[in-house]
Amino acid sequence: MPNYPIIKSKMDFKNSLLLIVLLLYFNCAENSPTPYQDGGNTVFTSIPQSHSKIDFQNIVKEDIDFNFLNYTYIYNGGGVAVGDINNDGLEDIYFTSNQNSNKLYINKGNFVFDDITERAGVEDDNGWTTGVTMVDINNDGWLDIYVCKSSSLKNRSARQNKLFINQKNNRFKEEALKYGLKDYGFSTQAYFLDYDKDGDLDMYLVNHSTDSNNKTLILSPQQQASLKTDSRDRLFNNDNGTYKDVSESSGISNLRAWGLSASIGDFNNDSWPDIYVANDFSEPDFLYINTKNGTFTDEILIRFKHISANSMGSDFADINNDLLPDLLVLDMMAADRKRGKENMPTMNTAKFNRLVNKGYHHQYMSNMLQLNYGNGNFSEIGQFSEIAKTDWSWAPLIADFNNDGFKDIFITNGIDKDLSNQDFRHTMRRKNIDYTKKESLDDAINLIPSEKLSNYMFINNTDYSFKDVSVDFGFDAKINSNGAAYADFDNDGDLDLVLNNQSDKASIYRNNTEANYITIRLEGPEYNIKGLGAKVEVYTKTTQQLKEQYTSRGYQSSVSSNLNFGLGESKIVDSLKVIWNDNKTQVLTNIEVNKRLTLSYSNAKKEAVVVTKETALFDVFPASSVGINYKHQSVSFDDYSVQLLLPQKQSTIDNVLTVADVNNDGLDDVFIGNTMGFPAELYIQNSLGIFVKTNQELFENDKAYNDNNALFFDADNDNDLDLYVASGNYSQEEGSVLLQDRLYINDGKGNFSKGKLPKMLTVTKAITASDIDNDGDQDLFVGGRIIPGKYPSAPTSYILENRKGNFINATFKRAKGIQSIGLVNDAKFSDYDSDGDNDLILAGEWMPITFFNNDKGVFTKVDLPTNTKTGWFQTLKAIDYDADGDDDYFVGNLGKNNKFQPTEKKPLHIYANNFDANNSYDIALSKEYEGDLFPIRGKECSAQQTPFLNEKIGTFSEFANSNIIDVYGKENIENALHLEASSFSSYYIQNNGNGNFEFMALPNNAQFGPTLDFEFLDLNKDGLVEVLGVGNIYDSEVETIRYDASQGYILTYKNNKIATYKDLISISNKEVKAIESIFIKEKLHLLVMHANEGLSLLKLK
Question: Which of 135, 234, 442, 786 has its CA 20 to 30 A from that of 715?
């Protein structure tokens, strides 16, 4: 057994207590049972009942009076709490049973346990039990047990929560009434915290509603104050040992709750505990920010850009070792393709938007991993991290399960009956069944599919991503698990697991990891003896780690109060710091590993609180402060009414922001386009650094056009910059005159007039200029972006030849292969082969980065290695980044934080055709699964696009088993337009000469979202250019999580590779569309364009 040194000052009675503990500890060691051996070599070993003696089993029985029809949460399972209730140095276990007796097991060592439930007096077999928390509520040094009750719809007294007070002799006494915690709500779990920082423990109680009637959702959250009080969450303030309900005065009582969990911690970095509540169904989660005066404000809409739809278990812990806790909230999206199709209802677009407009949130059926940026804002990266889909999930536990110094994720999974199975739900709606009869109820129950599922273990890859190692780590058993807790049951320095399963015996897993560790036991102040809310930071030469002392975690459960830090191969802890709730601290240095230490509040010292904020790279101002009063307006159009299965809106592709000196006074001016009905704006800078809007009448007259992109270039060779504006919109009719691009001619003083262009009735976006025919003037490439109503068919792209200021369509002559090249987003003329002329490089959706070689003004597509990577490329920049004399390329793509995750082996496919002989152009996204292509979208939405599917495929199960040809027919698929995307990563493409290009995926923090624009600056004045990337796209269809996680990034070039200049820097937390450098009064600034807002101005410090 490891040593257990005590690093603290102790009063005499504590010395006595320690002596008793140590005597018990070593006595147990001498008489410990024999360890269990199964001959296996997995990281975790499942300990059988025959060894552990744990025979607890949570079984639920339904009858006419109580069943899934009148209690929605009948299959939600029970919880488990761990803690040393008899102070013998070994962690004990308490399970909750929904309908039968709870169970308390004493740890006898080596994973053998003794059931002392009856003699301890903690059976609690009356009513319906849910969550459980071990807490020393009276601070006598002995853990007590708080048990939550729910259901009992016709017997309110059976819903009384229980508080079992430890009598110090393996017996307990129920005293909830005495402490003021005899609550009768529909309770899920209790969370103890010191929210008012008065030194004692308060309690937040998560409750849930029993009313599943979503008709109430026509109300805003603020209009729901009249709903049942037993369904609302509670906040109890500790008033000299008695708990008083302060829910109303604290500001948390006016909302209906569907709470399944909460997470406690500091979400806005002000050192005060906040409360995140995970709510089921359409009720949005709450983020109660502590206002430090006894009240809370819900800031869920401010801090998070989207959340889960059916929020379940949650945990709040640091996944990337930046000393900032991150949030994980679970939902119900299946990883298995077939189960996903069988259980996934169609998202109702109108309902989704209605809820958002009523003050709810953007909510999606997916696990959410919210990465803490440290600025009070979070970015959701669950899909990037590959933990988004774990089926019907309950308890997430973020902890270091392999002791490598990085926290991993364990998730319990499964439900006894698949209530979300769509075939079952449709059958129930059709049948007229009298559910007051037992036979009818039995028939209904037998209709519900039931499938046991494995739990998940994800190991941290230390790069914001996780690897599923469930089978390798020993979690291959098909078993439906609910509550879970971790503790070091055998005191060997790693975290073991205990699970409360539904209908099966409870599981306990021994962790067999062999790596260094240090375990911390906290001894807090007089009225918070376990130190709840304290933070411990551990530093070694290779890692820094943070843990916060809150034990109620995951789902209906509480974990050990001992803090276990994995240290990998580190032999010494350089320093360890504990920060108590009142900001007193203690620091220890040069600590040997593989020790168990006790840190006492009595040794802490009050120090001045120093808030260390890193120096920001930019000062941020509204552009209106310099006279730029522009506001962007997104096109308001329902694209899905035209093509129902679009992956995202096509009417909002505009990002017109360009900077140039239009009046030749040496000062930067700016042109900003807008959308239909809103005029573009041109601002000219004066000597005071103020911008004045000009040419207003001209742009007002053309406001019916939609601006997608713009380019300043010298069209008429008069040494000033003219303006080309790419135009058109998906919402307009094909062939509309409003699809025509526009040319504005500059008189040299910044006054513009309308020029002429050939007829080009195409939605365009990409524009680039070069003298392709060597006649001394600038010619143009203009890329077609989309055909209205016919995504993803290729529109017309153009080569415009400049003949003394007049442009003619020379596409067929100059680049015949370019006319229908694809959905072009960006283009650059660049001499990629260093032969002295400018070639043409294109980026677009469902396209590779495409090179056209210039041979005396004629462009021919070149077969290069770049053709192997097709994507949804958004932007393209040419720069000699490695300083070897030729152009390299930065290309922005959708990023890797999305549900599609295409690869070269398993690309994303799209088929487009008129599948059902009506006037709509239908599309079908698909991916390969076990050698076959299957539709990505579900049955209901697919049938809405092509109604013949309702008759062809009768059930969701049949649809789930149907491949793309089964669904749409062989002829339809063979005759369809077929495109692929093999990568959504953004890249640096290094030009190594002779047509050899090396694709280097940008670092992971550059893949959190789309990159719509790049800018290049030497930020640290070292002569090397840094790369700034920005972009978000909020307009995905409602079954696809919107692409909103990027807050921008900065990259640099180190050791011949692209590296992060600074982790998790926030350039902007909004929907950024474009960024441009601009000098104002000779100082470098950045202009940032946001959707539906004014511009931001960033001044480089």
Answer: 786
